[in-house]
Write a structure and sequence with these properties.
homodimer, 258 residues, mainly alpha, Arc Repressor Mutant, subunit A, Four Helix Bundle (Hemerythrin (Met), subunit A), 2 domains, two-stranded antiparallel ribbon, 12 helices, 2 strands, 69% helix, 3% strand, DNA-binding, DNA-binding transcription factor activity (chains A, B)
Chain lengths: 258, 258
DNA sequence: TAGAGTCAAGTGGACAGGCCACTATGACTG
DNA sequence: CAGTCATAGTGGCCTGTCCACTTGACTCTA
């Protein structure tokens, strides 16, 4: 029961104190209290401001750091992240949602075609169950888990562990890249949801054991995901991001023509 | 300079201790030490195991929590977040050379097609230089490095970091899997070499900016790699491996038909 | 014998205080 | 005005502590 400025909700799935502090700081950033590139108040000052311990502030800072929102520099301070630098050497941090989804389009399309050639009845049934889970869970964590399961089950239906592993890695790239997570959060906030029809079309192609139809359905599905990424950017962006999205559209059109 | 089990790199962009602990735990999860749904060792035990403070372990757990990898439950423990149920086998150790090469066939075929659509003159020249390196270096480490560079340069020519990353990961799977390494050693001992003609065909398709020809050439190249894997098995194998190779041939024929 | 209640141990959440190492800034000197 | 140095301020990591929740073992009663 700390005497902090946050309401004490209780144990059951109550957000932890560091999460409350982190969210309060995110709100301040979004409200323009701290501009990108600006330095946040020092840890000790934030601890006093929020009436929590310095360790709790440090935990909140770690949460912001993992989310790609802030960056702590020893001896200097904590800074609001500018737009993520483009030319760093860490691929995971550099990989945007468009790139991840385009890679998924190429690779999961082929995985779906191969799966359609050899899929078992058990795997068909498993996918059917996942479709029901998806229908029952939209826009929540269970739905996202079912979405992931759906795609990875298709990859596993190829009977090839390397293919399944690659699809898992591409899914996990979404969580490892702060840029990705932020954009998928934006897409969700803009009301974008996994389209049940798309998944059903994929499922039907697999059930019919039609490789070409499975590839086409997976391509269409991920084309729409790419569209929603670009749409989310447009609905939430400054002018620069708009022009980037526009040039992305042209580039997407060119790349999708193959 | 704590006496922890991690090497002290130094201040300049050195990863923080909590990051090292978090990554070590992620590696353990990926290696199957902790299955999805399993409980991790308690914070105090992990602190002893990694020879860091409990606060550092808590910070690492927050990083894993934000990344969606683990979930801390007060009074109960820290649990690996559920994922789609998988065999308890570790995928990397289980992945054979056939699976890796088949995955490469699917994915690098598509990468080559996309690269053919948008490749630059610089990348064409770089590939030309790598072809010369390949011609000058057969059956040695420099040749293998040039082979890897050739394929990764094609992936990078797509302009998509996620695609390039996946191709790198597939290449590196060869080294991480003892089964893979042994088989590629066998292929080399049986006199199997990367075919220069194949690489030249791929290069010419890229130079002509012909996506279909690039996909076809990459498929043919990797089909021959698969053939050589099977041939090496046959020339070096016990009877069981022969029947496996024979059934693999039938399976390969079925899978390649899509 | 099974179920309910109790209690202790084990667990994570949060805190206080401390020290180290790095960075930034200001004062001083040449 | 540039360079140097000292100091204050900063984040990184630590130790120790206490609180609140969960879990499992044990006991008692029907």
């Amino acid at each position: 029961m700390p005497n902090s400025k946050f309401t004490d909700i209780g144990p059951h799935n109550a957000p932890k104190l560091y999460q409350k502090v982190a969210n309060a700081i995110v709100a301040s950033i979004r409200n323009g209290v701290y501009a990108p590139g600006a330095r946040l108040p020092p840890e000790r000052d934030l601890a006093q401001e929020f009436d929590v311990s310095r360790a709790t502030v440090r935990e909140a800072m770690i949460a912001l750091e993992i989310r790609g929102i802030a960056e702590a520099r020893r001896g200097s301070g904590i800074y609001v992240v500018d737009a993520p630098p483009k030319d760093t050497n860490t691929p995971e941090l550099d990989i945007g949602p468009f790139e991840v989804t385009e890679a998924r389009r190429l690779f999961e399309g082929e995985a779906a075609a191969l799966a359609a050639a050899i899929i078992t009845e058990e795997e068909i049934e498993k996918l059917s169950g996942l479709l029901q889970e998806l229908a029952a869970n939209t826009d929540n964590e269970a739905g996202e888990k079912a979405d992931r399961n759906f795609h990875i089950t298709i990859a596993e239906a190829t009977g090839n562990s390397a293919i399944a592993r690659v699809v898992e890695i591409l899914w996990d790239m979404r969580y490892e890249s702060p840029m990705c997570r932020e954009m998928f959060d934006r897409a969700r906030n803009a009301g974008v949801q996994p389209r049940h029809d798309d998944h059903l079309t994929i499922f039907n192609a697999l059930k019919s054991r039609d490789p070409k139809a499975a590839r086409r359905a997976m391509h269409s599905h991920l084309d729409r995901v790419i569209d929603s990424i670009l749409a989310a950017t447009e609905t939430d962006a400054v002018e620069k991001a708009r022009s980037e999205a526009a040039s992305k559209r042209m580039e997407v059109a060119r790349r999708s023509a193959i």
